[in-house]
Amino acid sequence: MLKCTSACAGCSDSLALRYVLKAAGPDTVLVVPACCTSVIQGIYPNTAFNIPVYNIAFGAAAACASGMSNAFRVLGKKTNVIVYAGDGGTLDIGIQAMSGAFERGTDFLYICYDNEAYGNTGMQRSGGTPIGARTTTTPTGKTDAKKDIDAIIVAHNPPYMATACAAYPQDLFKKVQKALTFRGPSFIHVLAPCPPGWRYSTEKSVEIGKLAVKSGMWVLYERVYGKLSINPQSKAAMKKPLPLEEYLAPQGRFKGIDAKTLEILKQHIAKNVKKLTAEEAEE
Amino acid sequence: MKKIATGNKAVAEAVKQVQPAVVAAYPITPQTEIVEQIAEFVSTGELKSRYIPVESEHSAMAACIGASITGVRTFTATSSHGLLYMHEMTNWAAGARLPVVMANVNRSIGPGWNIWAEHTDAMQERDTGWLQVYVSSVQEAYDATLMAFRIAEHKEVLLPVMVNLDGFTLSHIMQPLDTVEIGDFIPPMNLPHAIDPKNPAGYGGLTGPDQHFKFRWDIERSMRDSVKIIETTEKDFAKRFGRIYGFTEDYQCEDADVVVVSMGTLGKEAEVAIDVLRNEGIKAGSMRLRWLRPFPKLDLKGKEVVVIDRDYSFGFGGILAKSIQAQLKTELYSVIAGLGGQEVTYEDIADFIRKRHIGEEFWFGVSDNV
Known about the structure:
heterodimer; A: alpha/beta; Rossmann fold; eight-stranded mixed β-sheet; 12 helices; 8 strands; 40% helix; 14% strand; B: alpha/beta; 2 domains; seven-stranded mixed β-sheet; six-stranded mixed β-sheet; 11 helices
């Protein structure tokens, strides 16, 4: 990735991508559906990306990558095929193609960078938007919970899946490198705080990402052949979480959140901690 | 080698001969037999393709696009709702200049569910940048599929090609089929813009109002250039394998006063109608349009024209009739017949010609002047 992308100031999509590409190395093709990453490459005839990028329609990334991966293998090439898609292109419009590609055992890495709304079109709700968050299509706060895409991925039994956050680049780097060692489909779900969308000032992206993990709203872990390992950062957060309000307060999207919704979010965190801890303890 | 085959099997046989690296397809009636036959060929090793059993037609075309951009040959097949479901991606394949070849088994569009022949499915794809050929026999389905790869992959074309065959009346009927060894008839695929990590490039990214139209024009330029590539390919095919094709198949048109124009299997039925009319002393001829895109210049000067559309554009008219009328700049008789597999016999076609009212539209089985 070259300097001077057309990303917004403080963008964690481009921050995360920088580390993804460093980890993946030069023999990599990125498949990008409609999302912020389609825009931050820049405008033809320029591109800020130093690897081949194949842009494809919104709902088609995993299917396109599926064809590409098969073709590279026919040609005897080991080229990494990485889908880099937003939450809209993954949780919503792209879920069918993604499910199909995972079920067919496609040899690729699917990375969902999740800024919890349709960022490219100016912050409309997505299946990834958490309850209580204001977007341009949920002006009084979303009334439905965030879709649990990770559970859906787990149901496909991929050899490797992980969560990550743009605020923890070393962890992301290692997970990408590890994911690419597996044959078959792997998945990394990256939380990508978004200054204009989440309504906080641009220098706070890393801080917000860390607060998401420390409050337990976002849990860092990986599953290798289904076996769960929770990251030390998240284990610490589970034992002694920061109050959720510390994560929500700097974000304009949660401004005026009512007590009932706040309680639902807290219950969600508690339930998630319990579920993941129990899963990790299982033999 | 001579054998007996259905239209669907003939397409699969052609695919086996051409050996695309990747086939991605989703079954749909009446195309299913193509997918099954290809899967069978792959399982026996006769076809050395990667067969991707995708979960939808949208993904079938997306997978062909992803494979094709690496520089390998790709094929898919669909029909009706499957074609409409992949419509976004058919546009993408053409815009991305990828020589994907697809067989489309023409079928009606619901509701209500109707699995029989109609051309409205492929007609709705006419503005996507795909070349489209319509065939009328099992042999032609085979030959056109072979030629489709050479035409699509030609460096002056680099556009996808759709081979259309009528649902059931061609896909499921048995006729003799003479298969060939193609040898070097189709050169190895050479995609100049194939993805190469050693030479990184962005594909299909943001393109502004100062640039986008240039890519659109480039598609049209190639579409125009494809006319001579189709001609040279069909000529070379005739030389090597002895079967002659063209933009149209003309039957007794030369001295005809009236010519009936149609596509697909109705074109064969029309030839029988012409024989009947000639016996009655009516100087009629039949022109079967093979290539819808690029749309050819038709030699119909000085003749009365009857067009049979197995399709319709609501609020406008028979799509073929309107296209021909725009080119000839004269009135013609537009017949809408065969929708959803409606039975149309040579006697019916002879009647359309006998009772023609130039300047009018006639819905077979509906209009008052039946």
